[in-house]
Every structure is written in C-alpha cells, then in structure tokens.
Amino acid sequence: MDGTPIKNLKGVGEKSALLYNKLNIFTIEDLVRFYPRNYEIMPKVSRINEVSEGDTGAFLMTISARPTLKRVRNLSILNVSAYDSNAKSPEEAVKINITFFNMPYLLNALKAGSKYVFIGSLKGKRMEHPAIYKPEDYYALEGTIQPLYHLTKGLSNKSIKKAVRNALDKVDISRDFLPLSIKEKYNLPDFSESVYKVHFPRDEKELRLAHRRLAFEEFFYFILLVRKNKLLNEEHASNFKMIETAECNRLIEALPYRLTDEQVKVWDEIKDDLSKGSIMSRMIQGDVGSGKTILAFLSLLMTVTNGFQGALMAPTEVLAKQHFENLTDLTKKYKLPFKPVLLTGSVTKKDKQAIYDDLKNGRANIAIGTHALITEGVTYNNLALVITDEQHRFGVNQREAISLKGEKPHILVMSATPIPRSLAMIVYGDLSISRIEKLPGNRLPIKNAVINPDMRPNTYKFIAKEVAMGHQGYVICPLVEASEEESAFSNYENVKDYTVKLKSELPESIRISTLHGKMKAEQKNRIMQDFHDGLIDVLVSTTVIEVGINVPNATFMVVENAQAFGLATLHQLRGRVGRSDIQSYCVFINTDSKGEKNDRLEILGKSNDGFYIAEEDLKLRGPGDLFGTLQSGELNFRIADIYNDSAVLKDASECVDMIYAGKSDISTTELPYFLDMLEKALGIKIDSSTL
Q1: What's 57's domain CATH number?
Q2: Domain ranges, residue 677
Q3: Residue 95 — left, alpha, or beta (φ > 0 → left; ψ -120 to 50 → alpha)?
Q4: Distance (Å, whole) CA 432 – CA 458
Q5: Residues 192 and 227 in one domain
Q6: Each residue of 231-254: pLDDT tens digit?
Q7: Over the stretch 22-33, which tens digit does the pLDDT of each residue have?
C-alpha cells in the first residue's frame, strides 16, 4: 500500500500529523488500517412520546429559554429546557430538561428558539449528556451506520472519517493479501472491498462480511507466525542446558508457605524443559494470586545457579519496580545469588549506561524492566531465560525481539488472562501451556455484587466506609471523557466527569485521582506509584489498570456500565483487588437502559474462577457485537477479537494447518505471490516445497 507520511494527506498537515502520530498513525497506510473500534446506527428522528423510557432515540427539539449554568465544587452543570419540535400541536409538545456536565461553552451556543437534534435516552422528562447535531447535519446521517474511531485530544471522529475517505481515494488497495483459493473456500470478499466497507458500511450484512474478511487475514498471518516460531524452536537445540541446583530446593524449603500441588506440577514441567536440551517455550496461565511469580523467581534462580543470566519483562514501570523490589527482598532474606538491575524508560542516561555495562560483562545476572530490555544498546553476556509477565501486552514480535538479545534463550510467559483452552491452543500455539487453576488456601474469595444504578448512593457510602478503615480502591469507567459525537456511548460514564462527581459525593478528606490511557507515560507511572504508596485513596480509571499494578491494600472496585465490557476484561479488572488476606469486594453496576438481567454479569457475580468464566463467556458469544460495545483488545489485534471472532479464528487455524500439511489449494500461479506475502509478513525466506 502507501507508505507516504500522513502529513502529506489532503487536509492533514504538520500539526494534525502529530495528533495522528499519538494514535500510531504515521503513514497513509496506517490510516487506512486504522479500523473503527465500534459503530452506531443513527436512529430515525422520533417524537418524544414515541420512544419508551430508557431507550435511546433522536429528537428534534426547540430550545425554549436561555440555558442556566451552575457550579458545584469542580463540576459545572448546564441545564437546558426544550420542547419537541415534531409534536402534532403545541399542546402535545412535550417539554424536557437536558443536562450537560462540564460543557459550559454550550451556554452561549444553545440559543433560545433554535432547533437541534439530541440523541440519548429518556429518564422521565430528562436527558443527560446527549449527543447534539444541527438538524441539517443529522438528517444527512439518519438511519446510516457510522464508524467510531479511537480518538485523541484535538482529533474528532468527524475529522478522522474525512481523512479516511481522502486516504481511500488516494491509496491503491487493489493488491490482495490472500490467495484466491483461500478466499473462495472461506467465502471472503476482496481486501479492497472489505477495507472500504469496514470504514463506511451501507448495512449490517455488508459490515459483517468485511469485518470477517479482515479478521480472518489478521488471524491467518498471526497463526503463521506462531507456527513458524514453534518449528524454529523445535529445530534448535538449546545452548543453555541446565540442572536443578540445591539452591532451588533450599528456597522452596525456606519459604513460609508450601507450594500447592499445582505449583509443584508446573515447577516440575519447567525444570524438565530447562534440563532436556531443547529451547523451552512455556506459558503459565493462572488467576491473580495463584502463585505464578514464585515459580518465575525459582526459574531465574535455577538459571543463575547454572551460571547464566535471566530477564523478566513487565508491562508497566510500576509492576517492573515491584518485581525488582520483591526479588531484592527475597535475595536478602534467603541469601540468594541474584545480582539484579532495574531497567525502565525513566532510568537516567548515566545509570542506564552503567546497567548496560553490567549486563554486557556479566556483573548483573538478572535484568528486570519494561520494553527498555529490548531496546538498542542492551547487550547480554549469556542470556539464557526470558520471562514476560502478561503475554498479550507484548505479542509474538516483542517476545521474539527479546529472544534475539540472547542465543535463543528459554522463554517463560506468565498470564492471568483467562482464555478458553480451545482458543489458547491456537493463539499460543508456539507455547506449551501450564495451568494453575486453584488459588492458595489462605486467600479470601472476593465478594461480588451486580447492582442497578439506583443503588449508587449506597455504593458511595460503602466506598467511604472502606476508606475510613484505611483501605484503597478503584472506580472503573468505560470512557476517558464525554463526546458530543458518539450517541452510542452517551450514557456511559467517563473518568473525567466521574472524578468530579465522586468528589462531590464523598467526604473531602478522601483523596481521589484519575488515570487513563491518554495520559503521558510519565504521568501514568507517577499516579500508579502514588496509589501504590498509599497517597491516593480512590483511583478513578479506565481499563488501563487491567494489568501492571499490584496494591495489596486495595480492597474494593466499582465498575460503572459493567455490561459494556467483556467478561475476560471484567475478570482481569477484578484481579486488581483481593491481593492480600483482607476481605475484598467488587461491585458491577449494570446500567442497561431496559434494566434487563445480564447473563454475563450474573456469571461474574457468582464465580471468581477465571477459567470457568472464560469458558462460559465463549458459550454466550454469538457473531461479534459491533454496535455500542467495547472490544476486549486481546493480543492487540487491529480488528480481530478472539472471543467475538472465535469461529473465524478456528477457520484461519484450519487453513494454516492445511498449508503446513501440504494440502492447500493454492495454485502454482498464486504461489510466488503468496510466498512473497508470507516472507514479508514473517520476515524469513520460505521454501516452497513446505507448502
């Protein structure tokens, strides 16, 4: 496609290009492949009395008087009085009150007598924070399916849609990435058609076909890469054959607790892998608190007592620092031979160079850090074991990158992400999988509650009570900030407004802070560290805290609009509490406008078992829900979702199996082109006789 810089696209320019860069869009091709995160169907304009309470509708309203603005602490509340412009008679014109939070600029924009289309749900004769359109703009969209993109401050959904249209007009996307035989077998449309229709679908059927095609392609090349890694690992003998040492047994005997039977089983599997002469590629799956970290430390101990180096890579600086501190404490307490260094993005240039030198000459035998462990300049003396914490936050390519830092080191992956066995065998096909399904007996199970919005006042009292007892906790919201453009999410809470709201509901002595993915890395790290150090009582956050923060004193979590999240995400979030012997709680607020019982939330409310939840979640999923939901983002695919697209994942896996078995229908004329695509995707030369 087109590697032209995004700044050269009509209507973008230098300044806007910097904003697109924040979304990892650097070229026109990046923009074309920047697929919508969700969609909304723009409802037909209705009269107010035609829509049931709680349902979302579009209403043409006339502003009846100048809006009023008041401030409560840090919250600005704008009240707008309006009546139904489409009423059959003035007597039937239903009047409603519309409320906006922290949007004071609308005071002068919404003038008495002017008409606007408001989209949102009715609560009696009230609407809160609806989307707003000028009538002529909305009637052009009425009844259409509109894409919703990930945004950053300064870029609107409207501007991204316009840029995508310009890009599709400019770029040549006629070249397909799948052979004709595969497209015909799996009923997949052309790439060019799918890309256009996934951005601008005319109807739901068209959208689903386009989504399926692009998800298949993404899975297909991902699985090819996984299979390639598996074959390469099987072909290479390990340069780091180890033996079990007395130090490992001494540490196990000295620990203040006994390893569970499942931990012992997994430890035996790891020891066997490290000692048999081939390269270990193993994943430990287990819920938070199941005891994966001590197995990682034992693996590092076996490595250094055999004279080699080890590395442990975490997804955030805060978690990397916690691993470093825990390993250092263990080293001092049990007189272990670890010489660890901490390498993260915030380490000063001077200290970084000293760490590089220590790793290169072998003075340090353990490196703990973030992605900084795989940056240029880092050279290891004899790196034999690489451990990554939370596999899906790194992906296959990054795991491979750190592997290149040594001579094919052993790989151990820790993951608390619950994935059903059938899917795990595909997406982690290059790894042997060990599972720890039971928690140590000293952990109190988290108490869960699924409630409706009417119980929020009681929830706020509960938060205040927990904080008064010296505990901390989280409130999770689906959005960073309110959007004037996205009516599909107009009733979802956002962290910015909710933080202000919470400060008005809780005592002033409670320290509340905000965390979200649009913050700079330094700011996020500082806030997470402050929360870890007890300087923040309540952290209002998006799902950015799903991994990478361990605060044993955090005993409660409240999840707003819980029905908007996938079960796997909710279970991951819940794992931030219950990390000590203190009783912990998780409250899921179901804000479904119709008040319907949510089967997924009921499963979560009854069980803390991640593996059970993952299997039940898969049973409940039908074809992917593309409207008004929040995607899980597992393994950081651009468009594919291993749960919603599980049937497509299995088709792609079957297709790859047939290729490796030499049973594909790829024609001789397609083969050279297909090999070229494979070599670009996988980064290696491929022997055509293997296909």
Answers
A1: 2.40.50.140
A2: 174-235+638-691
A3: beta
A4: 46
A5: yes
A6: 777 777 888 999 999 999 999 999
A7: 999 999 999 999
